[in-house]
Amino acid sequence: MLTRLKTQVPLFSMNSYTKLREKLKLSGLSFASTHSHVIRLGRHSRHNSKMAVCIAVIAKENYPLFIRSVPIQNELKFHYTVHTSLDVVEEKISAVGKAMADQRELYLGLLYPTEDYKVYGYVTNSKVKFVIVVDSSNTSLRDNEIRSMFRKLHNSFTDVMCNPFYNPGDTIQSKAFDSIVSAMMVQAS
Amino acid sequence: MEAHEEKPIIYTMENKPIVTCAGDQSLFTSLYTSLAQQLPRESMEWRRSYGRAPKMIHLEANFVQFKEELLPKDGNRALLTFPFLHIYWTDCCDTEMYKASVKDDMLRWQSTLRLHGSVDWLIVVVESEAKKKNKTNILPRTSIVDKIRNDFCNKQSDRCVVLSDPLKESSRSQDSWSAFLTKLRTLLLMSFTKNLGRFEDDMRTLREKRTEPGWSFCDYFMVQEELAFVFEMLQQFEDALVQYDELDALFTQYVLNFGAGDGANWLGSFCAPVKRWSGLLLRRPIDMEKRELIQRGEASLLDLRSYLFSRQCTLLIFLQRPWEVTQRALELLHNCVQELRLLEVYVVQGALDCWVFLSCLEVLHRIEGCCDRAQLEANCSHTVGLWTYATEKLKSLGYLCGLVAEKVPTSEDLNRTVDLLAGLGEERPETVNSLQSPYKKLNEALSSVEAFEKHYLELSHAAMEMYRAIGRMRSARLIGKSLAEFYMKKGDPERAEGFLDDSLRSYVAEGWRLQVTHTRKQMAECQKLLQQTEDYLQTSALLAGDANLTEEERKHFCQEILTFASQPPAPSDQTVALSMAAFAQLRQMQFSPPGAVVHVGAALQLELRVRCLMPVAMQVEQLAATLHFSLEQGGARGRAGSAQRRAGHGPQGQGDGVVMFPQGSPLAGAGMGASLPPALELYEMQDRSPSDSSLTSTGVVCKNMHLLLRRHDSSASLDTPTAGALPAAVAVDDGAQMLRARDITLQPGDNSILFTAPTGEPGSYTLRQLCGSVGRVQFVQSHIYPVVQYEVYSQEPQLTIEPLSDNLLAGIPQKVTFTIATGHYSVKKGDALQLSNTDSMPILHSSCCSATVLSSTGGQPSIHPLERMGESALSIQSSEKVTSISLPPTPPYHTLEFQLEVLCHIPPTPFKPDIERLTNGEVRHRPKSHSHVDSGMINIDQKVSIDCPWSIYSTLIALTFYVPFKAKHSILSAGKRKYIQVCLQNVSDTNFHLADPVLTERQPTVSMELLSLNVKTQQPVCSQQSVFCLWEMRWAKPLPLCLQCAFSASFAPVSASDTHTAFKPYRYEFQLDRVSTLYSLKAEISPPSGDQHCRTGALCGLEVSITRQAEPSETEGEEEESTEIEGLRTTKLMYEVVDNSSNWAVCGKSSGVVSMPVAASATHRVQMEVMPLFAGHLPFPNIKVFKYLPHNAVPAIQPDTDSCLENDTISLLDKGLDDQGDTASIRSRGSVHSVGSGEQQRGLPMPRLEPFSPGQVFYWSQGRQVLVLPVTDDHVMEVNVT
After folding, report:
1. Is B1201 exposed, middle or buried (0-12, 13-18, 19+ CB in 10 A)?
2. Check: complex ipTM more than 0.90
3. Contact in structure between A123 and A93 (CB atoms under 8 Å)
4. Option in B249, B511, B680 nearest A63 (CB)
5. Which residues does chain B have within 8 Å of residue A37's beta carbon, measured at their own beta carbons?
6. Where is the secretion signal located (chain A) (predicted)?
7. Do A112 and B385 lie within an 8 Å CB cutoff?
8. Any idea what the Cα angle at residue B47 is, between residues B43 and B49, rounded to 5°?
9. Residues of chain A contacting B519 with CB distance shorter than 8 Å
10. Helix axis angle, B513-530 to B533-544, nearest 10°
11. What are phi and psi of B167, to 5 degrees?
């Protein structure tokens, strides 16, 4: 344990630096206004408990750091969905271009819809990807709510990275992170 | 002429706003062409209500003849048929006619308009010169216009315009045209604003009533669509689209609310079971069939959505936004599926798939119809979603209808197909002639297995191509995988394999484990069908160790391997080599002894810890690790070097001999390795200076820096997956040497296997390959990383002798340790060390000597403490020449230790230091690099020559001894009496007792005796202190010129227990020359006459008397230069008065030469004058006497002046130090007699001065003082404070 501690020490300072940078980026988020023509007829509370059905954190190198989905029997399908969504994530990142990379918004928006799910993406400045899959029937979730979910996720992820016992690149096993994710997912009742 | 058609056709979208024309129809007809042309030529700004941005629009109009039926009745809100402006045309130019008919006609027109509440009208009066000419009673033009204005346009004079000569090309005509057109446009816009505004208000009111029970969405739809139509008519497609989007959103919200339990009654009609699924229809601007269904409230949800989308599609294409169509289409299709699900509408299974499939293709066809190929290719990303969706739907239809199978569809499947096709209805007239219509495609695809395959493959490949083109490799692979599943169903594993392999590679490369497991399972199935035994076994091995699978599945795959392994091998095929990575993981290796450096033949064990990944216990017949043997150049090199290297040896050098293997994930031997950064490999680095191996620098080096600092590709390219799905073929190499363990059972989880490493030959052994055999199957790990190696060394036997303490002192017996590192030599019984004896260093041995045997099996004695093995007595036999030490039997690579007492005799005479004495008596000079030179200790390097049993050569070992004492002697005189003083200084760090100091003559003469004046016989000499001893010489006969003396004493260390036996002799020999006193000098200072005392500044008399003390002896006479004058032998002496302290000033001659008779008591007096310079008790000035040798005399011995000065014996004499100073002062003052070699150099024959030996001249007045009084009138006293 002692040797492990020793190797971790220099990394710790790097983490906190990354954290600072990413937090700074977060504060600069802007929110685009939603389509003005849409007429809202009022909100209904039935869907409010429903949130994400799958949440994934994917490393810079595109392997999953964390992936959790609601119906366990469908796990594989979500893995396929999240993995395929990386195509769009990469497309969106590269579309921004190198010069604008610093000003890029972290939230990537809807990556692609499928018949059953909507897949949203978010990329940190260190190219860690967050993917949230939402049930298509869940219409109560607006863009802003998805954004705030990502932001929560990002904050919790930064906390994980700040943990000196966490080895960057390992799968995330933090309980705190897990509980944040659980709170965002549909409660399997 | 369309303007005169009875009823406008509204569905052509060639609509224009309606303007009615009353009055003179023929007049209007003549003007119509130019009017229709010129009206849209200029744009007008349209200012709009509700803060909407003003727009420039080009106006067009549909001019129709005025009829009362055209005017809208109350409640009819149709906007398309609404006449926005009414124009009355007249060219009446004569008053009579006006009054007679035109006015009445206009009045009728006006009243009709008023009746319908229409206020948008205009009267146009056309004037023409031609007409005026024809008429005779022409009134001024204005009068008719004025009349009309007066009659009709009260307060609205602008409602009447004049158009002059419209058919002529004159400027007047043009001006009037433009004025007219402007007026027309303005009025039209005013009418639009007013009427549309009213319409919109009504529409909003209607919308607000949506919560009322009787409200119907379909009715509202028709109303708002009317508005959309008008905007479309006005070419305001954007506004038109907004109307549809609003309808879309409204409907969507209703559906969502319905889903939330807030159902509206009118939605009931949309919840009816879906009966038709003919797909979207985008080829018509307006699908009147569907529109009518909506109007009648009979539309299904799909009808409404289809219609709405077809309108949106039309408008978007007008707006040149085809890619938005595709995007919206995908959303729509997803949404419809969701909505039907939400509304719980009954749909025949597969019907929706049909609808989606047809719709996708329809949208794609529509887009293809309005874009060229290049545009389409550039915008693949927009269409590929639809392609994929269509592919998916066709696939699911295929599965549903039993078209994806090796067999033909069952009758049940056929029934289902027929039902589905029935719901498509008849093909639309628009596409009947098209060969590639979606309808035909679907029909054909569902018609037979072959046709389905053709269409499905076509779609799949198209979608894959597009994904590849836009770089979405993952999506492309997903389709590929789905194709593979299709092929597998069709029983065509050959074609499936490629797709599966491609997908698997990418999943492995990116480390997605669930996908890897899933795909690998499919791969296994495929490989089994293809009978690729080796690949199948490899995949099975990977799957058997895959934690993502259930226990049963894993056992199944494990069993597959075991079944194969247990089959008797066919003669043709060899064993199958599989990668170890799937089978087991190396965890750690541990060497015992941990240093992993052993001598030849030593036992070295290697414990391998392996995590077996198999779900069941595996019986492994043999687990072997091949070794790579390399004979290092330093196979038998010294231990120190090897230990040093080993200590700083990265992962292996943790000191405990444990090699840990990095823990990757079980499935991604290469995949995760590629994506994760490698761990730091730090090594300790020590830089030692080559000369004395002292540490000059130390640090930490990262050995795999090139890997860590390599720039990582930030976008991991998927095009070339790094790792294969299957590990590369493994080859078993047959190493000559190997570690082997037989018949072991590997339990699931961690296992420990013990190997015994071969240590037969010295060299370096590196573990290369690990191979486990299970029947016909071999699991091979081709490389073991990090590198595991051990070393076997062979060592020459070595003998060292080391003192117990820091320094060895000569003269006293001390113990030294003999250490024998046996190395590869085994000491047998009877082996003995033969030490050549020397006189100067005898070996003192006692019977109780015993040897200790220490084991050094740990390898490096420098690292590991030695283990005491046993003790045995030594037998030592001494003969004259050799001392033989019989060694106890000692196994190889052990250490034998024993102690012996040695004594080094102190050489008696003051010998020259720094001379090595070899046992054979040779004297050899060696460089003066000795650490004890500073402390003044004289050292003796004593070499011991030893014959060892393992070597034919003698071993020479040097021991350095230090002489603890330093002795000096001096001779003291008192008149004729002589004393000898010996000073003994202890230069060592040890305290000694000194006993019985004795001074003897070496050639004893009877005439002389030495009287000891020493009181104590024994006294301590502390470290760095001195002891002085004194003897008086008594003699009867004249002394010989040269006296040989020897000082001897006994000494023992204070710490020694047994003082009597421990006392050792110390001897110091020296020689004394010319001891007896020849002359005595006496000085007398007499105050000036008449004075009792000397006074400063006053001259005093100095009388020096030199007296010959003894007869010249025979021996002395020889060297005394004497001359015979008148029978009297005289010798010449030079005297000199020297006053070093400047107390005296010698006035006149301070030196002179006197002739002394060579006879006892011969005295010579010299008178001189000196002046005291200070008052007080002044010491007498020094008087020195030299032999004065004439120039011709050749001295027998010419003492060198320089050596005189440096000679210890001289310097210690009573006057010696002063003499030196005086000699110098003589020279510097340049007094009359210059001495030394300076004059000889000139080559002139000059007399020489030669000093007497110490003790030959005795100065009586040494230390005498005389009182000098200050001058009486001198009141100044000088005080020197220094």
Report:
1. middle
2. no
3. yes
4. B511
5. 242, 245-246, 249
6. none
7. yes
8. 150
9. none
10. 150
11. -95, 5
